[in-house]
Write a structure and sequence with these properties.
The structure holds 2 protein chains of 2 kinds.
Chain A lengths: L2 H33 L4 H10 L1
Chain B lengths: L1 H6 L2 H10 L3 H20 L3 H14 L16 H10 L3 H13 L3 H5 L3 H7 L2 H12 L4 H8 L6 H11 L4 H13 L1 H12 L2 H4 L13 H18 L4 H15 L4 H25 L3 H4 L2 H31 L18 H13 L6 H30 L2
Helix pairs in contact in B: 3-4, 4-17, 5-17, 6-11, 6-16, 6-17, 8-19, 8-21, 9-10, 9-19, 10-11, 11-12, 11-21, 12-19, 13-19, 13-20, 15-16, 16-17, 20-21
The chains are: A mainly alpha, B mainly alpha.
Chain lengths: 50, 386
C-alpha cells in the first residue's frame, strides 16, 4: 500500500471515529450538565462574574 | 593551515570553532536570530520562539559543548532532550499546565460546539495526504499533518515518536503558525463566506449556568471516555484533564496555581531551548524543511476551511442560524483564534458580539486536537505495517 493510500485510509477512519467520539462527549456532557444543575446561589454568582 | 596545526597541535584546540565553521552554521545563526527577532520585536509566541531561536544558535556553534553527545561529556541540551522530549515528558507536563488554565464551562453549556472542533481537525488529515504527494513517508506525512492540530505539545509528542529527525522544523512550524493565526485565518474566512454570513447574529438565550460539580466531574468523564476509545491518547488527554481537575476541585489551589504558572513557565523554557538544540544545520537546511513550513500553512488553511464549511453545512439543516466564522475557532490555538473571529464579527457589524460562542468552540478545539492526536498515534503504527 502506498503512503498516499495509507494517509487517505487514515483520514477515512479517523474523521468518522473522531465525530463518533465527539458525539459521545456531547451526549455525556449534556447528561452531566442536566444531572448536576447549578443551585440558585451559583447561578447568581455566575451572573455576577459575567 | 594543516602544516601549522601539525607543528603547533594546541592551535587545533584553540581554533576548532573557526576551523569547523561552515556557511550552514552561519545560515542557522541567521534563522536563530530571525526567531529571536520574531519573539522580541513582533511578539510572536515569545515564550517559545525566543528559547528555540537561542537553542538553534547554541546547537550550531561548531563543536558546541551544549549539544555534545560524547559519553561522559554530554551537553545540557542533549541531556534535556533525553530527559524531556525523547521520553515525551515535557509535552505531557505542558498539557497539565494548559488544563489548569482552561475553563470548560462554555463547552459544557453548549456541547454542540465540539462538532465544529472535530470538523476543524480536517486539516491534519488533508495535510498528511498532501505531504505524501510531496514524497514524505506515511509516518512523516502524518507527523506533518499534526501541525494542523494547532497544538504544539501534541505536535512534539507525535513527532518524537514517529519523526524524530523532523522534530525541530515541525515544532517551529507549529508554533510559528499558531502565532500567525490572526494573519492566516481572516483571508481564508473572507474567501469562503459571504458578508451576510459573517453578519449572522448568535443569541445568548437559554444559557444554563454550569455547576461546580459538573465542572469537577467533566475532566474525569472525558478522560474515561477518551481513554476507552483510544488508550494511547491517555497520556495526552489525561494530563490535560488532570490539570483541569486540580483547578476545578477547589481544594488544591496551590497545585493549580503552580501548574498554570511555575510549571508552565519552567517546562516552556526547557522545551523551547531543547527543541532549538535539535535544529542542527545538517538536519535543518534541506528542502524537506521548506516543504514542512509550506505544509504547515496548508494545514491551518484546511483547518479553517473545514470548520467554516461544517458550520455552513449545519446552517442548511438548522432553523437557528450559526455564524459560520465560529467554525474556524475549532483549532487549538486558544484563545487567539476565538478572539480573532470575534473581532472579525465586530468589524462586519460593530453590534454583533459572538465572543462567548467563539471561545466555546476554541475551548472545544483543545479537547478535539488531543483526541485527533490520539487517533493519529493509534493509527500510524497500525497502518504503517500494511
Amino acid at each position: 500500500m502506498t503512503a498516499t493510500a495509507k494517509a487517505l485510509l487514515m483520514m477515512g477512519i479517523a474523521l468518522p471515529v473522531m465525530f463518533l467520539v465527539i458525539s459521545i462527549f456531547m451526549v455525556a456532557t449534556s447528561a452531566l450538565h442536566k444531572a448536576f444543575p447549578a443551585p440558585a446561589e451559583e447561578e447568581n454568582d455566575e451572573e455576577d462574574d459575567d | 593551515m594543516e602544516a601549522l596545526i601539525q607543528q603547533y597541535p594546541w592551535l587545533d584546540e584553540l581554533l576548532m570553532g573557526f576551523i569547523g565553521l561552515s556557511w550552514k552554521h552561519v545560515v542557522m545563526w541567521g534563522i536563530g536570530a530571525l526567531l529571536i527577532w520574531l519573539a522580541a520585536a513582533k511578539d510572536y509566541e515569545p515564550a517559545l520562539l525566543l528559547p528555540i531561536g537561542f537553542g538553534a544558535v547554541l546547537a550550531n556553534i561548531p563543536h558546541s559543548s551544549a549539544v555534545s553527545q560524547v559519553k561522559g561529556e554530554e551537553g545540557f541540551l542533549f541531556v534535556l532532550y533525553n530527559a524531556g522530549i525523547g521520553n515525551e515528558l515535557f509535552p505531557v507536563l505542558i498539557f497539565v499546565a494548559i488544563g489548569a488554565m482552561c475553563d470548560f464551562a462554555p463547552l459544557i453549556r453548549n456541547p454542540k460546539v465540539m462538532l465544529f472542533a472535530a470538523a476543524a481537525q480536517f486539516g491534519i488529515f488533508a495535510t498528511a495526504v498532501a505531504a505524501t504527494f510531496l514524497g514524505f513517508s506515511f509516518e512523516h506525512a502524518s507527523s506533518i499533518g499534526i501541525i494542523g492540530a494547532a497544538d504544539g505539545p501534541t505536535t512534539i509528542y507525535v513527532a518524537s515518536r514517529f519523526a524524530v529527525e523532523l522534530l525541530g522544523p515541525l515544532s517551529v512550524a507549529a508554533y510559528c503558525y499558531m502565532s500567525l493565526v490572526p494573519v492566516i485565518q481572516p483571508p481564508v474566512i473572507n474567501a469562503i463566506t459571504t458578508k451576510a454570513e459573517r453578519q449572522i447574529r448568535m443569541g445568548y438565550e437559554n444559557v444554563v449556568p454550569v455547576s461546580q460539580t459538573t465542572k469537577f466531574l467533566f475532566p474525569i468523564m472525558i478522560t474515561l471516555i477518551a481513554g476507552m476509545v483510544a488508550p494511547i491518547s491517555v497520556a495526552l488527554i489525561g494530563s490535560l484533564m488532570f490539570g483541569n481537575l486540580i483547578k476545578e476541585s477547589g481544594v488544591t489551589e496551590n497545585l493549580s496555581a503552580c501548574a498554570e504558572n511555575e510549571l508552565a513557565n519552567l517546562v516552556t523554557l526547557l522545551l523551547g531551548i531543547t527543541i532549538g538544540g535539535t535544529m542542527e544545520a545538517e538536519r535543518f537546511l534541506n528542502i524537506q524543511v521548506l516543504l514542512i513550513m509550506a505544509l504547515g500553512a496548508v494545514a491551518f488553511v484546511f483547518d479553517t476551511a473545514g470548520g467554516v464549511f461544517f458550520a455552513k453545512l449545519m446552517n442548511m439543516f438548522s432553523s437557528t442560524k450559526i455564524n459560520p466564522m465560529i467554525g474556524a475557532c475549532g483549532i487549538s490555538a486558544f484563545p487567539m483564534s476565538g478572539r480573532v473571529i470575534a473581532k472579525m464579527a465586530l468589524k462586519e457589524d460593530p453590534t454583533n458580539f459572538i465572543i462567548q460562542h467563539a471561545i466555546g468552540v476554541n475551548v472545544a478545539g483543545q479537547v478535539a486536537s488531543v483526541v485527533a492526536g490520539g487517533l493519529v498515534l493509534a493509527l500510524i503504527p497500525a497502518l504503517a505495517k500494511m
